[in-house]
Amino acid sequence: MEYRKLGRSGMYVSEIAYGNWLTHGSQIEDDTAAQCVHAALDAGISTFDTADAYAETRAEAALGLALSGVRRESVEILTKVYFPTGPGKNDRGLSRKHIIEAIHGSLRRLKTDYVDLYQAHRFDYETPLEETMQAFADIVRAGKAHYIGVSEWTVDEIRSAAALAKELNIELVSNQPQYNMLWRVVEPEIIPACEELGIGQIVWSPLAQGVLTGKYSPGKGAPSGSRATDQNGGKDTMARWLGDDVLTTVQRLRPLAASVGLQLGTLALAWVLQNPNVSTAVVGASKPEQIKENAKAAGLTLENALLKEIDEILEPVIERDPRKVDSCHSRP
User: Fold this and answer.
1) For the NADP-dependent oxidoreductase domain, which residue ranges apply (predicted)?
2) Is 18 within 8 Å of 47 (Cβ atoms)?
3) Cα–Cα distances in Å, from 37 out to 45, 71, 262, 306?
4) 3-state class of 139 per DSSP?
5) pTM of the prediction?
6) Is-contact 318 310, C-beta < 8 A?
7) Per-run averaged pLDDT (10 residues), the chain, 332 residues
8) Which end of the chain has fewer beta carbons closer than 10 Å to its terminal beta carbon, N or C?
9) Is 54 a catalytic residue?
């Protein structure tokens, strides 16, 4: 495993992070979740990403259980706040009330006194940004989070948050966007701005929900037990990738991966890590052996000629429109 600094902070994160969206507390039982977490640790993965809303808070609890007995200082625990965690009108969003209550719930479930990174899971259009950033600053000063970050914010929102963070003498160190060979909407505007501001990318869906592993074939149904058959959110999030045009194009990458001795998924992860603004790529796994394969992408260098061939093959199905970042938002 290789490690990189998270943005301009002094904290290292593993190039491959283990995330438990759609798996812990949903697709797999706690004992399997623990096996995956320990397989990640064995592979040198030290960074674990979750969120309070995953599996209605059960994902955080499963991760906390799986990490019990692990030296706290040897791992980086990342979680998020914004999406509903209960039925009340204040059980969501980025108000001071919800943020302060949410961090206490996350720490309880994760069985820890602090998280290494606390992230705003989306932008809250109903709460003043000043209120949100002040609450985050208070959490950092109370020692309940070391750093703060955001996820799926637009470039203007990131710039505004970074300016407020500077005024409050705290560091906004990360952005967590969807980014992979097929989905490149952060390249035109967000990544250049983040490079300027010292913000690193924590990439989610680097395998396009598994499509870039090549296991989904055009004209065929999804394999039994795959994410595309998951009724708890996985199937819906994958819909954009399952057209025959995308699947057929992805299959054309197989010879390229084979030419450099890599599995297709390992090539896709290594591709993401070629971007110097990427601090870590978050992968999910429902089986320990998947973790071991994903970890092989760390430290790989892909030649420019290979990167060019990848672009030429995928160009017809690549999404680059920076306005599509908004498609991930939940506007009122």
Assistant:
1) 15-314
2) yes
3) 9, 14, 24, 32
4) helix
5) 0.90
6) no
7) 97 96 62 89 97 92 94 98 96 98 98 98 97 98 98 97 97 96 96 98 95 84 52 59 90 95 96 98 89 94 96 95 74 45
8) C
9) yes
